[in-house]
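Sample intake sheet
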Amino acid sequence: MCVGLPAKIVKMKNGTAVVDATGARREISTELLSDLEPGDYVMVHAGIAIAKITADDETESEELLDMLEG
């Protein structure tokens, strides 16, 4: 099973972004998506932003992950 994690874009530069995923900051590729800017939420898989999502989607994803953790 493949799992994507929601993350908030903190800053962008030349096809990459620094994102905050539940407090952990990582650099990811944004080459697959256009029109992204800091403050946007994305779904990240294997270090690549695969979809732009809404803040509501991010909140729902976080709640589901919390439920799975127990």
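Comment: DSSP finds one helix and five strands in the chain. The first helix runs from residue 55 to 69.
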